[in-house]
Specification:
alpha+beta; Outer membrane efflux proteins (OEP); 2 domains; five-stranded antiparallel β-sheet; two-stranded parallel sheet; elongated
């Protein structure tokens, strides 16, 4: 009883110590782990093929992007990996040959219970040792599997086809992104020039207002309004320069080039737009589905999934294989230091085997259900992709029509704004109109010219976008614009 009380008292003391220690413990805030800088990561190799004195057009920019953009190399390597996977499946049709060497040493002691030795109280022992080397070569060959390898090979080929289609999609995406950002950069650069012209015209209008005030026919309000117009024009010019730099960086990013790359780029302002009567018909838009690389990839994925069903079905069938082994070697045996032998070993064997699956607890049936479900899901994905693609094509066609109509309207707006500006300037110089009308006409002309430039770039982009969603964009298309 005393021992029990002593143990209980000791346990209570330990519990109190643990509780006190826990109460006095505070959790410290986690400290960030310091990572030393890696100077090698800050080194970016320059593009050596860039000619700083050459003015690049769109086709040349696309060629640079196809050469230097990492996305093309990544997509190509992924396509290569699927091709290698198909080759690995194909190699299973050939036999497997393996060479091996077995070497070792063995030593053991034996105590003999001999009746005479027991009578004489004598123990009898023997020591045996042996060592040797046995090289062997074996061959295993799966002769028949009743469609298992063929289904796996066809599935791998279909996956390779799908990856090739994805590579084409990557290529087309790069072409479109370069064209899109090229048109945007050209429009931004043109808007910068237009805003600079507007600044010059605003300063000329300020000079005219000051000259009229000096002759006594102008007012200080005219000068204030002219100064306000010039200040607004300067602010707009600065903003347009920033937008131009941003669009230039976007173009370099689409090409996969470092942002520090210096390029001279030809303007797209003189590119001819497609005419309204060249817009594709409904039949052409429908037939464009046959050119979509993403639909080709989805279709190949369907066929690969269907081959996956056949692969599982082959698990219900037997397999026939051949196994052959040939071995030869030498050994050395020592029997209690009395008998020593050096035998030579040779042997070979050939087996023909048949494996028939009988019962697996329903595993193959569940795998078959799963494979059939994946095949049906792939078909549904293809159908959904077709609907989405057709919708994209129609939306792109409508966008191009709207862009061309907007460009035609911007031409009329530009002509009217130009006429209004010239008339307002002449009227102000001879004192027939106010400074307010002159500034409004100058701002209206700027808006009209920039809207015209933007509409031209938007129509070019819409045309490239339509070709892209129809799966028919390439360097030849952008050159034909």
């Amino acid at each position: 009883m005393g021992r029990f009380l002593f143990c209980l008292f000791s346990l209570a003391l330990l519990t109190g110590c643990v509780t006190t220690s826990t109460k006095n413990t505070t959790l410290s805030a986690p400290q960030p782990y310091y990572l030393p800088p890696q100077p090698a990561l800050a080194v970016i190799q320059p593009v050596e093929t860039i000619n700083a004195a050459h003015e690049y057009d769109l086709a040349e920019l696309i060629h640079l992007a196809q050469t230097h953009n990492p996305a093309t190399r990544i997509a190509w390597q992924e396509a290569e990996q699927t091709a290698l996977a198909a080759g690995m499946v194909k190699s299973t049709y050939l036999p497997m040959i393996t060479a091996s060497v077995v070497a070792g040493r063995q030593s053991f002691h034996t105590k003999h219970d001999i009746e005479v030795a027991q009578l004489l109280n004598i123990e009898s022992h023997s020591k045996d040792t042996g060592h040797g080397v046995v090289p062997a070569i074996s061959l295993s060959w799966l002769l028949f599997d009743f469609g298992r390898r063929e289904a796996a090979h066809q599935a791998a080929l279909e996956l390779h086809t799908a990856q090739q289609a994805k590579f084409n999609t990557t290529h087309q995406t790069i072409v479109f992104n370069v064209a899109r950002t090229y048109f945007a950069y050209s429009a931004a650069r043109q808007n910068t020039l237009l805003s600079q012209q507007h600044l010059i015209q605003s300063e000329q209008l300020l000079d005219a207002a000051q000259a009229r005030f000096a002759t006594g026919v102008g007012t200080s309000i005219d000068i204030a309004q002219a100064k306000q117009l010039a200040a607004q024009a300067r602010l707009l010019w600065v903003q347009k320069q920033g937008a131009e730099r941003d669009s230039y960086s976007a173009l370099l990013g689409a090409m996969g080039l470092p942002p520090t790359t210096a390029l001279k780029i030809k303007s797209s302002a003189d590119r001819v737009l497609p005419s309204m009567h060249h817009l594709p018909t409904e039949e052409t838009l429908q037939n464009a589905l046959a050119y979509r690389a993403d639909l080709m990839a989805a279709d190949a994925a369907v066929r690969a999934a269907e081959q996956g069903v056949e692969l599982v079905k082959a698990d219900y069938r037997p397999t026939v294989g051949l196994v052959a082994v040939a071995a030869a070697g030498s050994a050395s045996f020592n029997l209690n230091n009395a008998i020593q032998t050096n035998p030579h070993l040779k042997g070979h064997a050939v087996f023909l085997g048949l494996s028939v699956p009988i019962y697996d607890g329903g595993l193959r049936r569940q795998r078959l259900y799963s494979a059939e479900s994946r095949a049906q899901a792939a078909r549904d994905v293809l159908e959904q992709a077709q609907h989405l693609a057709l919708r994209e094509i129609h939306l792109a066609a409508n966008a191009l029509r709207t862009a061309l109509e907007a460009y035609e309207a911007s031409e009329e707006l530009l002509a009217a704004a130009q006429l209004t500006y010239e008339a307002a300037q002449e009227s102000y110089e001879v004192g027939l109109s106010s400074m307010m009308l002159a500034t409004e006409s100058a701002n209206g002309l700027l808006d009209a010219t920039q809207a015209h430039a933007t509409a031209h770039a938007a129509a070019l982009t819409a045309s490239a976008n339509l070709a892209f969603v129809m799966g028919q964009i390439d360097s030849a298309h952008v050159l034909a614009q």
